[in-house]
Every structure is written in structure tokens, then in C-alpha cells.
């Protein structure tokens, strides 16, 4: 998911997750919840990244506009070796230039890249089934050779099925976005193996003749476990063609046309289904697209990005020609200089749209030339946040308005903080080739770093004496981590505690302790070993095991305390806390027994009360779907010939159950109380209908905004789409009934503004426009503990009208039931006072969800995440007058137990 949309992964729960998971936000991959991990055993579904997670996790960002780099004078060299320290000949090494460059290693394992400008690069290497953890290195004249270590890895097993008949598709092409050489073809069983894929998040794509292509996100752990499995369902598709012209009607040659799912919850590569270049006459064509509503976007260096009107396809017939009109783009040019005013050569310049007018999810970047000059073309005429990062320093963000079509700016590299030191082994010997990363210790600064797309973090690789130097840091304290075994793209990198250092400190000592191993054996209550299960360490993505007779081994586990989560179909999740691993220890947990999961049974009925065979039934604590389908879910099944179904699995938490049939419709979400088992659930299908409209704020279209539709009263069965640049959204398939539809806008780096309306979804297709109301009043808020001390961390709700709730779960239910209204969600960090701005006068309710505990303890964070609905809430009424300055609110919490 685009980081700008973390505001609405679950609308009301996202900000809380952002707070309690903020120590994980530096990780490049998000940790799937247990229900997401279990659902992955059925089929791949797009998963959201953790709020605030830095970008760059292996899956290419949607619409990253970047021109070819200027030629430099530097050389980057290194060597690829195996786990026995022997050189590897013929390994494929890829460097993250634009475009990417690839070489094969020589007989002695060495490689080199010539004529490079100085900047941060990512190096990756693989050979067959062996892969090296990607290394990020800052290239300077003094950069030493980089060592890449190939280790055996498990493959990604891709199953490609025909969506209608659920039969294997033979001869389907399977590839990985961003890895042009990683391509394979499915066999007669519809399966293909992708070898040599590094740890992290990847987008896998499958295509076959007569079918529309499909994509899925994969979280891959190449060390240990069984193959990572993903299933792609290919639907029938129809050709789509069109033409791109300028305002005068003249053809635009060489424009890139992309097909975007209008009902996608993800404005990134998962929402991008296919792309092609226009010919000399401006025409373009795509071989096959499935049923659904699409927008087609065109980008070109001489024009602003443009969108087509929504096009609804049936997957069988080709629609009329799709017309895209491109308008003149804006040009941003300028100079990057050092603090002294001297030109800063080869600085990286990033620009991201900040308001209406930008195309969904775009970011633009370029490398300045040897004289520090840069130019970005083809930008939308919108407001931008512009930043630069050089070899030793970075600039402060600059607001630029490109409404006139052009701007000339100067970016001064004046953020020059440094932290330096040495990486050593347990015996004090220097460690060469360790990846070292610094993340702000202050969570507010961490959120601000997540806002910026320019640096993500400061990084370096230790040299022959173990020395590292992190540059371009803003003042403050940072947590430093280092690893030899794991890339920063692997969540395992972030499990180590690291050390804290202040900017200016140049004697930091980072000790790399020998990683340990965790092993054990999993068995069901009857003593049988599950055929397929997964094991997750702390908040890392799960490692899957199949056919191992229940045994599991997790290698390269950082020393320290961990929490283990074991999942298997039909069993309740097993959480093992307090797993302490010493440096170099081989920790055997012995037998881990899984208790039987809950049993839910019932019948699926049509609108007339007749049983429905062949309906999909799914259940989970939260079901968050996109504009056309529900899910994902840990418990899935299908109704039999009598319409009966049985689901087993899951823990004791409250569950939401839903049924769907391809032609007869979908049921409303049915809530099942915590701990309850039932044999008499009735799920009645309702006809489906679409819902579309436009979101506006301050009279302008609001693009890049999450829109969530939930049947009134349901806070756990919802559907989410994202507005395009013109503020338009669409749900293709909603069961008919009364819905609360919410637009979730960002306010700053940590705030959200939720505007909800109540509507009836029926077959008439009347548009639902959402106007986000903005006022002029501001309300200062201070939250105190019962003894008068400032509360350090909390999620704060300011909602229109009267509300009453004792827990977060109750508050979510109240907000889901009331219908129309507005809610602001703010994160209280470090005890700092808050200010709610742009308020409309009227009656409000202030609700505070205190978050007490060690936010740096993954075990505590996991407990809070899993039990968030039970967090206590303290509320009080607040009045915002129409005139004058509102009186500051000082909310004092009652004495409550620590959570």
C-alpha cells in the first residue's frame, strides 16, 4: 500500500496500529496479522504495510517517475562468495541504477560497475537457488569493495488456476516485478517455482493466453521453512484499445498507458494491472483485462499525468476506444548547493504532490548533474514537497507551487549530522561488510521520516576495519542496528535491539552477536502433525512449513527475547511468549501443541430463503475487502449441496462471518461473540449493486483518499477503495442495504480526518458525493494521567455529536452505527499537547485511548495489537463555539489498570 494511505487500512484502527507498531515502522515489510497469514495459505491477497513503514521493500512503487542518471566517474566493485567463503563465478549481480545494470561475476567472484555518480545504491546477487541479502551502500571515492554472501534459499511456489473452473493453467508465464530475469512457466499442474528471490515483499505476476494477467503480493522468507506459496486466479479477459492525444487532438507518441483497478484498495503495483506504450499515432492496446471498472492513466515526459473516464468491462467484449487527453505538464528545475553555496554534484532530488492535482501515488525524482543542476519534467500542475540528498548532507523540505507550469528553486544541503563508529564481533574483532542503519529514536521524528521519500533512513556498510559513518542526519537521538545475515528489506533485520546514539557521536560500538536458532515440533491435539503450518517470530512475517512432520527450524535469530506465533488450518493460534535466545544458542522449544479451533456451522440462503450450494463462506476478526470482494480471512469454506457449511479454526476472539456467491450476491457481515461456537448461523445473500461518487475537500477533488463502506453497525466487515486524482471512487460489488461510507483524509503526518455519510446502496446507481467539511476553529488538547502527569502515548478521537464508550471496540461500534458525522484521530506522542485544527463549530466528544507499556517490546506490541478492541477509552463532551478562541481542553484520565 502506498504509505500515504496507511490512514485507512482499517479506518478507525489504523492510527492505533501506527502508534503501537511505530517501533516496527522502519521495517520494509509489514507483518501480516495471524488471520492474514492463515488466509495466505488459500490464496494471495494484497496486504497493507505497517503504518509509517518506509518505502523501498522490493515491490516497485506505483508511478515512480525517474529519468536516466547522468554518468559519473566512480567505480563500485565487490565480490560474491558462498557460505564457505569461497568465490562464486557466474553469479548475477544487479545494481539499482536507472535503468538497472546487471553483470556476472568473474572466476574469482569479483564484479564491478563503472562510470557511476556518488549516491546510495542497492546491490543484489543470486545464482540458481542461492541468494545474497541485498546490501545498500553509499558510493563515495573511499568506498571499499562490497562482499555479497550467497546462501541457499527456499523458492516461491506459484500456483496458477483458472478462476472460473479452478483448474491448473499450463504454460502461464510467471515473473516478479523489478526482476526482469526472474521468469518461469507453469507446468501441467499449473505450478512454477521462482528460485533465488531475496527476503522481503515482492509482487508476483502471472499471464496466460486467453486470460487477463493477475498480480499478488508475496512476503518471502528464503532461509528455513518450506517454499513460500501463492495462488493466482486468472480470469477471462477481453482486449482494450484506445488513443492518447493532446489538447489539440494530436496523437501523443511514446506515452505510457497503465490500466488501474478502480475498485482497488491499493494505489500501488497491486492496483496496476497492465501497461503499454503508445505508437506513433497515439494508439495503444492491451491483450486482455478482466471484468471490473478501470481507469487508464497516461504519463509522458512532456505532459502532466492524465486519467481516462472510468471504464466498466465484462471480461468478454471489448469496450469502445478509450480516449485519454494529455495536458501540458509542469517543469521543476533548479540548483542543489552545499551549505557554503557551492554546487552539490549528483544530489538526488525528490518531488511528491502535496494537494489536489497530483496523480494518485506518483513520486518524481532525478539526479542532479555534475554542476548540481536538475530538471523534472512531466509534472502535474500541483503543489509539491521537494527535497534533495547529497553525498554527506540533505536539504530541508521545500514547498513548491507548480500551478503556473514552471518553477526554479534552490535546494541547500544543510542537514549535516553525523554518527560514526565501529562494528565488532563478540570477541571484539572488527566486522567487515555489515549493513548499518539509523532510525530516529523519537517517534514523531520517525513519522516525519516516513513522510519523506528521500532517505527512509541513514545507511552504511562497515569497511575493512569495521568502521561506518552515517551522514545527513537531523539533530536528535537514533537507534542503530547492524547485520551480516539480513538485509534491511527483511523484517528479521529489525528484531535486534541495537544501540542508541546521539548525532555528533563518532565512537559508537555496535556488537554483532552470533545469531541463534529456534527449533521445535508442532502437533495437533490428537498427536498428529499438521501437513501445513507457519511460525512467526515476534512481528515478522510467518515462515511456512509443509511436509516436515511438524518440525520447524528458524535460523539466524537475533539474540534477545521473542514471541512465537504458530498457525495451522483448523487449529487455534498458539502464542509462545518469553522465548529467550542467547548469542549462538540452538534453542529447542520441544513440542508445541495446537488446540482445536472454534467450530462455526450454518446455512447459506438466497433472498427467498432457499439453500445456496457453492457459496464461499469466510470468517475472521476483521474482514477488510476491496471494491469487489471481501477478505482476506483465516477461516474459509464452501456451502454444500444443502447450503450447509462448517468452518474450524481461529482463537477465542469475536469473529465476523460473511458469505458470497458469484451470481446470487453477498450476505451482510454477521458478528459472532468472542468464544462462542455455533451450529445455527444463517447467512442470507442479498443482490449486489455498485456505488460511486466524488470526494471533495475545500471545494477541490480529494485524490489519494481511502473510502470505506461498511454496512451500518458493522465495524469489522468493511470494504475499501481509493480515490483517483479527480476525487472519484467506485465500489463495483456491495450487497444492497444501508451503509456508512467514510472518506479518510490525512492531516499532517500522524492525523486523520474521517467524514462519514449514511446512504442506501441499491440498484439505482445514484452517485454518492462526499464533501469533507472544514472550519476555521482550533482546539488545543492536553491529556493527563490521574495523578496529573502528562500521558505519553495515546490515540485521541474528536468526534461530532455525543458518544459513549468504555473500550476501543465499543467506540468503533458506536461510530459505525451512528451514520453521518466527522471524526478526527490524532496520535499523542511523547506527552506533547495536541491541537485539532479546521474545526466546524458545534458539539463534540473527546475520547482518549491511553497506550501504556513498552512500545519497543515486540511481545507487548503484539499483545496490544491482538487485544486492541479491549483497550480502555475515556470520553468527555466538548463544545467548539462559532466565534472566539475555544478554551483549551485538559482531559484527565481516571485511574485505570495498565494495558
TrEMBL record:
UniProt entry keywords in alphabetical sequence: Carboxypeptidase, Hydrolase, Protease, Signal
InterPro entries per UniProt: Carb-bd-like_fold, CarboxyPept-like_regulatory, SDr/BOS_complex
Protein name, entry field: Carboxypeptidase regulatory-like domain-containing protein
Any Pfam family matching the protein: CarboxypepD_reg
Presence of the UniProt keyword Protease in the record: yes
Stretches the record annotates as Disordered: 27-65
Coiled-coil ranges per UniProt: none
SUPFAM superfamilies per UniProt: Carboxypeptidase regulatory domain-like (SSF49464), Starch-binding domain-like (SSF49452)
Polar residues composition-biased segments: 30-39
MF terms (GO), sorted A to Z: carbohydrate binding; carboxypeptidase activity
Signal peptide bounds: 1-27
Amino acid at each position: 500500500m502506498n504509505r500515504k494511505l496507511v490512514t485507512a487500512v482499517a479506518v478507525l484502527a489504523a492510527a492505533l496500529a501506527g502508534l503501537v507498531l511505530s517501533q516496527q515502522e522502519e521495517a520494509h515489510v509489514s507483518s501480516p496479522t495471524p488471520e492474514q497469514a492463515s488466509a495466505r495459505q488459500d490464496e494471495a491477497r494484497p496486504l497493507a504495510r505497517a503504518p509509517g513503514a518506509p518505502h523501498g521493500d522490493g515491490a516497485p512503487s506505483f508511478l515512480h517517475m525517474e529519468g536516466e542518471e547522468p554518468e559519473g566517474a566512480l567505480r563500485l566493485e565487490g565480490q560474491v562468495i558462498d557460505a564457505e567463503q569461497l568465490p562464486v563465478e557466474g553469479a548475477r549481480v544487479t545494481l539499482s541504477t536507472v535503468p538497472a545494470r546487471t553483470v556476472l561475476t568473474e572466476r574469482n567472484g569479483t564484479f564491478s560497475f563503472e562510470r557511476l555518480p556518488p549516491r546510495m545504491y542497492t546491490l543484489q546477487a543470486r545464482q540458481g537457488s542461492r541468494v545474497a541479502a541485498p546490501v545498500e551502500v553509499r558510493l563515495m571515492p573511499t568506498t571499499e569493495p562490497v562482499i555479497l554472501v550467497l546462501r541457499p534459499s527456499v523458492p516461491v511456489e506459484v500456483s496458477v488456476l483458472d478462476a472460473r473452473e479452478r483448474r491448473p493453467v499450463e504454460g502461464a508465464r510467471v515473473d516478479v516485478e523489478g526482476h526482469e530475469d526472474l521468469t518461469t512457466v507453469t507446468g501441467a499442474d499449473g505450478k512454477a517455482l521462482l528460485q533465488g528471490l531475496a527476503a522481503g515483499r515482492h509482487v508476483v505476476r502471472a499471464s496466460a493466453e486467453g486470460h487477463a494477467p493477475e498480480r499478488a503480493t508475496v512476503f518471502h522468507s528464503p532461509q528455513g521453512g518450506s517454499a513460500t506459496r501463492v495462488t493466482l486466479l486468472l480470469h477471462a479477459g477481453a482486449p482494450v484499445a484506445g488513443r492518447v492525444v493532446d489538447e489539440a487532438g494530436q496523437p501523443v507518441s511514446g506515452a505510457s498507458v497503465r490500466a488501474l483497478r478502480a475498485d482497488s484498495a491499493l494505489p500501488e503495483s497491486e492496483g496496476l494491472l497492465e501497461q503499454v506504450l503508445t505508437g506513433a499515432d497515439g494508439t495503444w492496446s492491451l491483450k486482455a483485462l478482466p471484468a471490473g471498472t478501470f481507469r487508464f492513466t497516461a504519463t509522458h515526459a512532456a505532459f502532466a499525468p492524465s486519467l481516462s473516464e472510468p471504464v466498466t468491462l465484462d471480461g468478454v467484449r471489448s469496450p469502445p476506444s478509450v480516449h485519454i487527453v494529455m495536458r501540458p505538464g509542469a517543469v521543476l528545475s533548479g540548483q542543489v548547493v552545499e551549505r557554503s553555496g557551492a554546487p552539490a554534484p549528483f544530489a538526488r532530488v525528490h518531488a511528491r504532490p502535496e494537494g489536489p492535482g497530483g496523480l494518485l501515488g506518483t513520486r518524481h525524482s532525478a539526479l542532479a548533474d555534475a554542476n548540481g543542476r536538475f530538471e523534472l519534467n512531466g509534472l502535474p500542475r500541483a503543489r509539491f514537497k521537494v527535497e534533495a540528498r547529497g553525498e554527506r548532507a540533505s536539504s530541508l523540505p521545500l514547498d513548491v507551487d507548480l500551478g503556473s507550469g514552471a518553477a526554479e528553486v534552490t535546494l541547500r544541503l544543510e542537514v549535516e549530522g553525523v554518527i560514526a563508529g565501529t562494528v565488532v564481533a563478540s570477541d571484539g574483532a572488527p566486522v567487515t561488510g555489515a549493513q548499518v542503519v539509523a532510525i530516529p529514536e523519537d517517534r514523531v521524528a520517525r513519522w516525519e521520516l516516513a513522510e519523506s521519500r528521500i532517505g527512509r533512513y541513514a545507511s552504511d556498510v562497515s569497511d575493512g576495519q569495521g568502521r561506518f559513518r552515517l551522514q545527513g542526519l537531523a539533530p536528535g537521538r537514533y537507534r542503530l542496528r547492524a547485520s551480516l545475515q539480513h538485509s534491511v528489506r527483511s523484517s528479521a533485520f529489525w528484531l535486534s535491539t541495537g544501540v542508541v546514539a546521539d548525532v555528533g557521536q563518532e565512537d559508537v560500538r555496535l556488537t554483532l552477536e552470533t545469531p541463534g536458532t529456534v527449533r521445535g515440533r508442532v502437533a495437533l491435539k490428537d498427536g498428529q502433525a499438521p501437513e501445513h503450518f507457519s511460525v512467526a517470530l515476534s512481528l515478522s512475517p510467518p515462515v511456512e512449513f509443509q511436509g516436515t512432520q511438524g518440525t520447524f527450524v528458524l535460523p539466524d535469530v537475533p539474540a534477545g527475547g521473542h514471541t512465537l506465533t504458530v498457525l495451522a488450518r483448523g487449529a487455534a493460534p498458539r502464542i509462545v511468549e518469553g522465548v529467550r535466545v542467547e548469542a549462538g544458542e540452538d534453542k529447542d522449544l520441544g513440542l508445541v501443541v495446537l488446540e482445536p479451533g472454534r467450530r462455526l456451522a450454518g446455512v447459506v440462503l438466497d433472498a427467498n430463503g432457499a439453500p445456496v450450494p457453492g457459496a464461499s463462506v469466510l470468517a475472521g476478526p476483521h474482514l477488510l475487502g476491496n471494491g469487489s470482494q471481501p477478505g482476506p480471512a483465516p477461516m474459509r469454506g464452501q456451502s454444500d449441496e444443502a447450503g450447509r457449511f462448517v468452518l474450524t479454526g481461529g482463537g477465542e476472539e469475536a469473529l465476523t462471518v460473511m458469505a458470497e456467491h458469484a451470481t446470487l450476491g453477498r450476505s451482510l457481515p454477521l458478528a459472532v461473540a468472542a468464544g462462542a461456537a455455533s451450529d445455527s448461523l444463517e447467512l442470507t445473500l442479498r443482490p449486489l449493486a455498485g456505488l460511486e461518487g466524488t470526494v471533495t475537500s475545500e471545494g477541490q477533488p480529494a485524490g489519494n483518499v481511502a473510502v470505506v463502506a461498511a454496512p451500518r453497525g458493522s465495524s469489522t466487515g468493511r470494504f475499501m477503495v481509493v480515490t483517483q486524482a479527480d476525487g472519484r471512487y467506485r465500489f463495483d460489488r456491495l450487497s444492497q442495504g444501508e451503509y456508512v461510507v467514510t472518506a479518510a483524509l490525512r492531516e499532517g503526518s500522524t492525523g486523520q480526518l474521517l467524514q462519514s455519510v449514511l446512504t442506501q446502496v441499491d440498484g439505482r446507481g445514484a452517485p454518492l458525493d462526499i464533501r469533507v467539511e472544514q472550519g476555521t476553529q482550533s482546539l488545543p488538547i492536553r491529556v493527563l494521567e490521574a495523578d496529573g502527569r502528562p500521558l505519553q502515548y495515546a490515540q485521541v478521537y474528536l468526534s461530532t455529536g455525543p458518544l459513549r464508550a468504555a473500550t476501543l471496540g465499543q467506540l468503533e461500534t458506536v461510530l459505525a452505527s451512528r451514520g453521518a458525522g466527522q471524526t478526527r484521530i490524532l496520535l499523542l506522542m511523547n506527552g506533547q499537547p495536541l491541537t485539532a485544527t479546521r474545526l466546524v463549530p458545534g458539539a463534540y466528544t473527546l475520547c482518549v485511548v491511553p497506550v501504556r507499556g513498552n512500545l519497543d517490546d515486540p511481545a507487548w506490541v503484539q499483545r496490544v495489537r491482538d487485544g486492541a478492541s479491549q483497550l480502555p477509552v475515556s470520553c468527555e463532551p466538548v463544545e467548539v463555539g462559532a466565534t472566539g478562541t475555544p478554551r483549551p481542553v485538559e482531559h484527565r484520565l481516571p485511574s485505570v489498570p495498565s494495558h
